[in-house]
Design a protein that fits this description.
The chain has about 210 residues and is an alpha/beta fold. It has 8 helices and 8 strands; from the N terminus they run αααααβαβββαβαβββ. The strands form 2 sheets. The protein has a 4-stranded mixed sheet with strand order 1-4-3-2, covered by helices on one side. A 4-stranded mixed sheet has the order 5-8-7-6, with helices on one face. A hairpin with a 5-residue loop joins strand 7 and strand 8. The protein is elongated. It starts with a helix and ends with a strand.
């Protein structure tokens, strides 16, 4: 077996995972700059040929691309030339993880009441999920016991997520028309921006804020 064979197998495995709908590869695909903004759902819908998988494997091994990796392996050099590390790391996104008592009920709440799409349900039975709306992504995590008491949440006004919104008044009116019960109605915050707060089925508070 050539020393390139393990890399070939890894690339084929990525293609197979994508075909099987394995959401664990989403972060690896977003490692390529041109796919950095894709959600997990968008990643699973995209075309994913072997060439892209090979590019991912090569870059994870420290090379610019598959051709460079092949050349390094062919040279049988014990210290192949690799691409120089980036000057600085760049943070690309932060995803709040919200703890819930029932993944099915909570994901349904975000879909039916808050207008999010369910991107994925992970596990059998499912214990982890991703929901998104307009590029904003939240993850839901099943827990057997409450992480926070309602008394502490109320006393400290604790938030599970803070979401920026363009035209927050329109979103408020959308939720109001659905009969949503608000923790706080639309109001002007001390920093000047309008906001409102809702709570999910477990009491987790989500604040939607305009500019």
């Amino acid at each position: 077996m050539s020393s390139l064979e393990p890399f070939r197998k890894q690339a084929k495995q990525l293609v197979r995972w994508h075909r099987e709908g394995n959401y664990s590869i989403g972060g690896r695909i977003r490692g390529l700059a041109r796919y950095r903004q894709l959600t997990d759902a968008e990643v699973m819908k995209m075309k994913f040929p072997l060439a892209i998988a090979q590019e991912i494997i090569a870059r994870e091994a420290g090379f610019e691309g598959w051709a460079e990796l092949k050349a390094a392996v062919a040279s049988e050099s014990p210290t192949p030339t690799r691409r120089p590390p980036a000057e600085r790391a760049t943070l690309t996104a932060a995803i709040p993880v919200i703890f819930v008592a029932s993944l099915a009920r909570s994901s349904g709440f975000f879909r039916d009441e808050l207008g999010f799409s369910i991107d994925f349900l992970h596990g059998n039975p499912a214990f982890y999920a991703g929901v998104s709306r307009d590029g904003v992504v939240l993850h839901l995590r099943f827990v057997h016991e409450p992480v926070l008491t309602e008394q502490l949440r109320e006393k400290e006004a604790l938030l599970a997520a803070f979401i920026r919104v363009e035209n927050v008044k329109a979103l408020f009116e959308e939720y109001k028309s659905r009969g949503m019960r608000f923790v706080t109605p639309l109001r002007k915050e001390p920093w000047g921006g309008p906001s409102f707060t809702v709570a999910d089925l477990d009491g987790n508070r989500i604040l939607f804020c305009g500019a």
